[in-house]
Amino acid sequence: MSFNVLRKFLISLLLLNYIIFYPQAQSAKKQFLKGSELSLYTEQMLEKSDFSFHRLELAPTGNDIFPFNVNVRLEPSLPAVSAKTMLILVSQEDFFEYPEEILSLVEKTKKMKRAFPVEFVFTALDDRNNIFPEYKFFLQGTENFAGNLDDGSEYFAVLINFSKNTKAKAEIFTTGGKSSTPMWLAKETVDSFLSKNIPFSVPQKLLSIYRAGLLFGDEQMAAFFKEGVQCIKLQFSKVEQISALENFIQNHIPSQNEKNDVHYSFITLANHTFWINEFKNILSVEIFGILVILFLVCFTFTGKNRLQSKKDFSRYWLFIPAMLCASVFSLYIGQFCCKNLAFISQANPVIQFAAKLFISVIVISVFFLFQVHLKLPVTSFIYGFMIILVSAANIFLFSMADITVFWVFALEYFIIYFTRNSSKLLSLIISFSLMLLPFLSYVAVYFANVNAPDIKILISSGKQVNIMLSLILFPFQIVWLKILVRLRVINKDKSLSLKKIAGFTFISAAIIAAVITLFAFLTTEFVYNKKHGFEKPQILEDSTEKNLFCKIFNDDSSMLRSSRLKIKSKKQAVRCSVNISSGQNTPVLDSNYSYLVLNNSKTADFNIPDFPPQNFEIEFSTEKNTSKIVTVTSYYTTENQNEFKKETVSIFVSGDKAK
Predict the structure, then answer these.
(1) What are the 10-residue block averages of pLDDT along the chain, 659 residues in total?
(2) DSSP characters for 216-227?
(3) Which segments cross the bilayer (predicted)?
(4) What is the reported pTM?
(5) What is the pLDDT at residue 488?
(6) Alpha-carbon dihedral of residues 309, 313, 316, 318, nearest 10 degrees?
(7) Residue 272's CB: how many other CB atoms inside 10 A?
(8) Under the phi-then-psi rule, with left for phi > 0, alpha for psi from -120 to 50, and beta for the rest, what region is 599?
(9) Core-most of 140, 285, 422, 637, by most CB within 10 Å?
(10) What is the predicted pLDDT for the residue at 420?
(11) Quick one: the chain helix, strand, coil %, rounded to 5?
């Protein structure tokens, strides 16, 4: 009896041990499989499921085994007439996490009745880490695959990955670099999610920001757009959401009428989506243009003060271009201060941009004092006409650049037009606040996604950017001047001195400055820092433990010197960089590895994929009389997270004779 009890106890203990430690063992296993091991695992799983596949090498040297892409092509089961091939890209890291679900998707796709071919591409090194900014090459599976497509117009791609945040919605990304997903592909994707009742969000709805170059879209998508391949990216937070992709493949019908319409916008309400395509946008601009001309020509000089309004306009119309020049000049002054004042130039980019706007407000306030001192016109009509004229011009100027922004500037125009007669201080403040509303979503999206180098476009701007920025700010600056005019009128003293005018003008400017400062603080704290507040990795250069060994062999038996660089590592490196520099001739003439010659043909950098083999050779040829320095740098993980060890070996090769 006691033996049975003991046996049950031991079995329970072993079961408990399995439950506790098996997930940890699996996790350790997943962390271990990297590089070529992960690529080999992908092949094994596909072979076990009886799928035909072929290997796409990242470094096709013929000698060494580096990570590689694995491709599964599924031919159409129905007659296909000039149908594009659907590419579905999955990183090998995601495949390792969810092999059963992804293999099930491949199997279901194979059995579907389709009139178009589908290729599943399991990409290597797509789950890369940008830990070494000084390293020039990020050779990964997506870039390698996209760059080797013969004709991008014969394909469209759906890129998928899985988020670590399981509580988030699925996300649909529609921009890469400065390019965007065409409407037909975005619409099919959105409809697939809606029909499956899968919650999703579209972080890049405001496509115009990306096309203008103010933000850089998804890097993986950019590799396909560069090769002329239309694409979209899906990020799943739960593996069950992959059914939306299955639904997309099932319902896709190739069409010869697929237009490359990228100037669109859409709104999703409940379970319905409303799309505005390029034709509707153009038609809206034309109708709006007729209405604007009608308002400006017919209604501007009407009413009981029409004679005085015509008189003011005929006398002071030159004030309009002068005010525009002052607006542009104020931005240049702000830009100069941001660059040359240390306490501003050392702040984060959001603070710098806010400082540029604040200084612009100060300059415009000084311009107002200049008007008062010279007794130039400060009537509400002149300011009102200027703001309507410029806001109307903005609609057409910015719509020519990107027609999707028409609705933003049209809404601003209507707000300005219907509040043009506001004269009381409170109504002017309300008008100013309402004018901000159309732009708030753009501001929020921009500062939530912008990188420090990108925002420099707005801080250290050229002529074109400053003019465009001044046109956007001009209506707000005019309302600000109307507020100053109102403050002057409120004061009962008609002989108000310039000193007193300057006093309340700068007090008002201080209030605006406080609002801009509050905006900069809130944006920095709750928007900008959430994206940029990551912990930078530590790179250690510790010489106590040596893992990297290099040796070079030269052969002068032919007209050129043939060299073999043997690289040996005691443990797996995360990344390896190789460069050869020479102060004399071109350092490398030919090699079995791809390379890029830099610094006026004096340095050659080799493209080595991440997680290289522990032992590999680079063969290259040079002129016999060329002396050179070969530098090999490897990075290794340490016991501490986000910490890496760097080892460098340099070898001098004389041009006199082979060694």
Answers:
(1) 47 44 44 80 93 89 83 88 87 92 95 93 77 51 90 92 83 92 93 92 88 86 93 93 94 74 83 86 86 65 57 66 83 86 78 83 75 61 76 88 90 86 81 89 80 74 85 85 69 56 67 73 64 65 83 88 93 90 85 83 86 91 88 89 87 73
(2) ---HHHHHHHHT
(3) 282-301, 313-333, 353-374, 381-397, 403-419, 426-447, 467-489, 501-522
(4) 0.81
(5) 63
(6) 160
(7) 8
(8) left
(9) 140
(10) 75
(11) 50, 20, 30
Distance, CA of 420 to CA of 347 (rounded, Å): 38
**Residues 402, 419: Cα–Cα separation, whole Å:** 27
The pLDDT score that the predictor gives to residue 393 is 87
539-653 matches 33-257 in CATH topology = no
User: How far, in whole angstroms, is CA 424 from its chain's centroid?
Assistant: 43
| DSSP codes, 14-67 | HHHHHHHHHHHHHHHHHHH--THHHHHHHHHHHHHTT---EEEESS--SSS---
Query: Rounded to a whole number, what is the distance in angstroms from the first to the last CA of the chain?
Result: 79
Half-sphere exposure of 579 (CA within 13 A, CB side): 18
What pLDDT score was predicted for residue 180? 93
Residues 6+ apart with CB under 8 A from 413: 292, 388, 391, 392, 394, 395
- Of 391, 386, 385, 419, give the one whose Cα is nearest residue 406: 391
164, 194 in Cβ contact below 8 A?
A: no
HSE-up (13 A, CA, CB side) for residue 580: 30
The amino acid that residue 101 corresponds to is E
Q: List the one residue out of 570, 569, 279, 644 whose CA is nearest residue 578.
A: 569
d(CA 360, CA 352): 12
DSSP states of 256-292: TT-------EEEEETTEEEEE-HHHHHHHHHHHHHHH
**Tokens 């604040």 -> residue:** 358
Q: Find residue 55's DSSP bridge partners.
A: 70
Provide the residue ranges of all domains of the chain, joining segments of one domain with +.
1-32, 33-257, 292-532, 539-653
Handedness of CA 603, 597, 599, 145 (dihedral sign): negative
The DSSP output letter for 1 is -
Residue 414 and residue 395 in contact, taking contact as beta carbons nearer than 8 Å: no
Query: What CATH number labels 539-653?
Result: 2.60.40.1510
Level-2 CATH architecture, domain 33-257: 3-Layer(aba) Sandwich (3.40)
Q: What is the CB neighbour count within 10 angstroms for residue 259?
A: 12
DSSP states of 331-400 as a string? HHHHHHHHHH-HHHHTS-HHHHHHHHHHHHHHHHHHHHHHHHHTT----HHHHHHHHHHHHHHHHHHHHH
Residue 584 near residue 569 (C-beta atoms within 8 A): no
Please choose, from the candidates 653, 656, 578, 639, the residue with its C-alpha nearest in 3D space to the C-alpha of residue 612: 578
pLDDT of the residue at 444:
79
State the DSSP H helix or E strand holding residue 498, giving kind and residue range, or none if neither.
helix 498-523
* Separation of alpha carbons 659 and 640, rounded Å: 41
Backbone angles phi, psi at 581, to 5 degrees: -120, 150
Q: What is the pLDDT of residue 170?
A: 93
